[in-house]
Amino acid sequence: MSQYASRLGARRGRALGPFPKPQRLRLGAPRRPRRVAMLSVHTSPLHQPGTGDAGGMNVYIVELAKRLADINIEVEIFTRATTGALPPTVELAPGVLVRHIDAGPYEGLAKEELPAQLCAFTHGVMQAWAGHRPGHYDLVHSHYWLSGHVGWLAAERWGVPLVHAMHTMAKVKNAALAEGDTPEPAARVIGETQIVRAADRLIANTDGEAAELVHHYDADPGKVAVVHPGVNLDRFRPADGRAAARARLGLPEDALIPLFAGRIQPLKAPDVLLRAVAELLDRQPSLRSRVVVPVVGGPSGSGLAKPEGLQKLAARLGIADVVRFRPPVGQDRLADWYRAASVLVMPSHSESFGLVAIEAQASGTPVIAAAVGGLPVAVRDGVSGFLIDGHDPAGYAEALARFAADPELTPRMGAAAARHAQSFGWEASAAATADVYTAAIGERRRRLRSVHV
Ligand code: UDP
């Protein structure tokens, strides 16, 4: 009997009284799933991260899925088709398939409009599933609350566990909004609360995020597992060093280069970096000729409302001559930007982990980061960089001044940063995620067993 049928039997039996005795279930020792349905409704693992809706979650899904496939867990990633030209399926890597689901018009739908397309998306997922034998997917792993809602129904229908990762949470974001930024709507809070209740397991990036799930959403602590995200250590490594990377990017060899990389939106506070640079140059005007501030990434989220906002701010602050805006780049190129930088600056208001912080460190570059969310886990204060409390540009200017004053600080902290990053490989994240899957499957089997004895 399939898991689905046995589950149905159990449910009907409970609700309506005696039913024909279900066939004997074969419930062996907990095992790893063979195939996982991974859900990423609003953004595709095939999109370029660093702009729009594509960021750390996309990288997370790609890297996790590949490493799961390496340990014999096949992954099928369901995502919304955003152009008509996409084939129904794309093989991302051996054992990792991306399935494009038609749900709403291809273009012109903002993430905020996607709740109205969740039924259509779920329909597409169910259609894909209907083409397989029962038991095709052993588990659903949903990412972000929109996917959680689809996963909730799919997992229940298939009789398999739902493992969910929030990535970001409305209540956490709203508690740390940048000045004038738009709060997340109540509907998202309600949706997240429902998923916390429905999921068999919740994966949090850090202990802090686990505590937030319990505190803000009343999650059962026994359901929350902490799995640190990783970094691709083959791609992000010091390689041939800072001077060579600067030469490739056409950057001056002896410049002070504080780098911002990622989605440009108020939550990420790139404005704090620009204000800090302006403050530094006010204090030490002689530095101007040897400061370059690259901003690599594109507008995203509420930053889309003012796509030129940061450029205008640079002009207002009188530092347009030192800031270089660059569109998002592929990760191999991004690794060169990290290597070239004196320091990566991440003044975010909220950050569930902060992949760029760990990627920069793996590339041999220290980090100045706000002490929020996962960043105190990603950055070792005083060793691989500096953590700053709050968002006063003065604190960031002071930290930048230390790098300006001591040219040895970047290589010294950079070496420590590269060592620190070694403990964040995606292999470890995938192994820990597989353990969460096994635990969720085991628990479900125990529950089924108790119903059937
Ligand atoms: N990124 C990229 N190209 C860019 C800028 C960023 O590929 O030009 C990637 C970067 O490597 C990182 C991700 O975007 O993996 C951003 O992740 P992070 O956790 O820092 O922020 P999020 O987008 O999740 O808020």
TrEMBL record:
One Gene Ontology molecular-function label: D-inositol-3-phosphate glycosyltransferase activity
EC nos: 2.4.1.250
Domain Glycosyltransferase subfamily 4-like N-terminal: 55-230
Positions with a binding annotation for UDP-N-acetyl-alpha-D-glucosamine: 48-49, 56, 263, 268, 329, 351, 359
Enzyme class: transferase
Entry keywords, A to Z: Glycosyltransferase, Magnesium, Metal-binding, Transferase
GO biological process terms on file: mycothiol biosynthetic process
Glycosyl transferase family domain ranges (all copies): 244-418
Stretches the record annotates as Disordered: 1-32
Catalytic activity: 1D-myo-inositol 3-phosphate + UDP-N-acetyl-alpha-D-glucosamine = 1D-myo-inositol 2-acetamido-2-deoxy-alpha-D-glucopyranoside 3-phosphate + UDP + H(+)
UniProt binding sites for 1D-myo-inositol 3-phosphate: 42, 53-58, 111, 144, 168, 188
Residues at which Mg(2+) binds: 338-339, 341, 365
InterPro entries xrefs: Glyco_trans_1, Glyco_trans_4-like_N, Mycothiol_biosynthesis_MshA
NCBIfam families assigned: mycothiol_MshA
Known partners and oligomeric status: Homodimer.
Stated family: Belongs to the glycosyltransferase group 1 family. MshA subfamily.
Task performed by this protein: Catalyzes the transfer of a N-acetyl-glucosamine moiety to 1D-myo-inositol 3-phosphate to produce 1D-myo-inositol 2-acetamido-2-deoxy-glucopyranoside 3-phosphate in the mycothiol biosynthesis pathway.
Protein name per the record: D-inositol-3-phosphate glycosyltransferase
Chain's gene name: mshA
